[in-house]
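Q: Here's a chain of 155 amino acids. Please give me its 3D structure as tokens.
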Amino acid sequence: KKELIVQLHSRFEQLVHREEESGVESWLARDLQQVLGYQTWRSFEKVIEKAVTACEKAGYEPSDHFVEVGRMVPLGSGTERPVSDYMLTRYACYLIAQNGDPAKAPIAFARGEARARAIAAVGDVKKVERRVQSEQKKLPKQVRPLESEESDAHE
């Protein structure tokens, strides 16, 4: 299991495109499709559509995270043909994972990774809150934040 996690994470990071001047990261959806275990573009595009809807419902502008692009792909005959694709932000990749098929091992990994990061972030916030509360208790009553004074007044 650990080997799969390392392999998937490594593959995901290998696919990143970084704009040199701004440092902005993006991924191409057709590349991500393979990493996440989708065989057909049609089925993966349905997941992208769900992710776009989730982005809208979260209050974000989908065009900031899902940019439609065209690119040329090689054919077996040595020629190329144009295909539609999307440039995705890291947030768009996260939304795709959240809306993908959980029966696929890469999707399950991506969901678990996102959940672990969220839990860690919440844990960090709680540690900071506890530290602030501890420090506030050490302050003289005259310089405590208003919130503390209001709660003291109601007692």
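Q: Can you summarize the key feature?
A: Confidence is low (pLDDT under 50) at residues 148-155.
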